[in-house]
Every structure is written in C-alpha cells, then in structure tokens.
Amino acid sequence: MMKQYTPEELTQLHQVLYEILEEIVRICDKHNIPYFVIGGTAIGALYDKAILPWDDDIDIGMKREDYNKFLRIASQELKEPYFLSWIETDPHTPYYFAKVKKNNTLFIEEMFKDVPMHQGIFVDIFPFDRIPDNKLLRKIQYETVNFMKCCLMGKEVWLWKHFGKCQISNPTNRGAVACLLNRIVDMTLSKKTIYRLMVIMQSCFNSWKTLYYNNVITTTDHVLETSLNCLQSIPFGPLRLKAPNGLKEFLLYNYPTLHRYTEEEQEKINNHYPAALAFDLHLIQTS
C-alpha cells in the first residue's frame, strides 16, 4: 500500500511551500517580473484562496522573457536558505524548467531518487511561450518538444523499457522507435545542447502574433495573451499572488469539468508521497 501524507506532514509541507513562494514573489515584485499561478495552484486559488488541502506542490508560470530575467536575478539574489535549481546551477537536474528549493530539506521524488541533484522541497517555475494557432503546427511543436524533454531526462535516468535498463519499477508507455531515437540523441549530443535545442523549439513562435501561450509540454495550460497582459491580484494563503485575468475562464478552458474535488474523489487520485521527506536535515543529523 502506498504511503499517504499525514495531516501534520501536509501542514508542515504547505508552510515550507508558502515560505519558498514568498521569496519568489519578493524577487518578482522587487524587479517587476510578471508571473502567474497555473495548474492545481490556480485551482486552489480559485476555490480555497490557498493551497488545496491535499496538494503537495506549487506551480507558477512566466513568459519566456520574464522567466529568463528571473533566472538571471534569482541566481544572485535568493536569500538563504533558498536555491535556484536549473540546468546551469544544478547540472544533473532532469527538468527543463526551474525550481526554487529550500536547503536542508528533502522531497525526493521516487522517479528521480538516484539522480545526484539538489533534492529539497520546491516550487516549480515554468517558462511559457507562444503556441501557433494552426493545429498542425501546434501538434508538431508539442511532439518535438516532448521528444526533446525525454532526451533531456534520459541523460540522467532511463524511464522506458526499450534500449536501456529502466530505472523505475513501472516503465512509462513509450514505443521502441521513440526510445531508439531517444538513445541515439542521448549518445550523440550533450545535455546542454539538448536543452538549448528544446528551448529553440519551445520559443520558435514567440515572434508570431498568436492567441495563446503555454509551457508547450502540456495541453492543459493554454492561456490567452490578453489574460496575461492584465494580471489580477488574488489572495493565496498568507500571500497575494498574480493570476491570469479571468482566472475561472482560464481554468475552464483547460479543464472543462472543473470543480473542487470532494474528499471521496481526492482519495482516487494517485498519491505523490515522495521517496523521502524531511523538513530540517539539521535535526536529523544531530539526533
């Protein structure tokens, strides 16, 4: 049986997430860097004006130019005990996006438990780029970027059953041809080259005049440019955050059956309890 969070663990985890988020917001406000809530964080903002009681992460987005600015500034300005994790500061990270993590904590995801990266509790920060209005071009961009994402991850951990030793108990469902191409790319190109190629594909339509932005990897974070041009201020736990203008409409577009889960529905959702969780490694080391 999968381990479940205790109420005490979720309370403590939420407190740390708010602390990390507060530091991110401090930097964004100081340097006029727009950001906006997405995914489950946006749903929590809409229904609870806080992290959803069962949620264990926070996701925010930034337009590519704002994301790049944040990376430049945060790497120098984050206060202790926080760390900016992305490919330049945390070379073994398997992620294409950035995370702000708290030092001396642990949140080790099962899939990446053997990756020698910073494994602290984190808030995710996703770059958002323009996506084409043409459905065929959008599909080509989406498929290409997701292939590059797998290549990036494959440099650190092999998650598939073909052309390599799978390092997780349940290999992801991926065809042999895609795995072979993935392996060829990983054997041929450096990780940073793969990352740069992926960014090129993510941002290749940024000079176009299109309706939507997205992080390109998913199909559930489409946000209208007009919604990002006038962000709204919303309460979120002890903080005030920015959200796309028309938050409910943004969420309904991406989640047509949008509603706040009942406790019964939440019990059916896959639990994401990490392989290891610790809120203060100093206490563990001295005990």
UniProtKB/TrEMBL annotation:
GO aspect biological process, one term: glycoprotein metabolic process
Superkingdom of the source species: Bacteria
Signal peptide per UniProt: none
Domain LicD/FKTN/FKRP nucleotidyltransferase: 28-148
Record-linked SUPFAM superfamilies: Nucleotidyltransferase
Family annotation (Gene3D superfamilies): 3.30.460.40
PANTHER family in alphabetical order: LIPOPOLYSACCHARIDE CHOLINEPHOSPHOTRANSFERASE LICD (PTHR43404)
Protein name per UniProt: LicD family protein
The organism of origin for this protein: Bacteroides muris
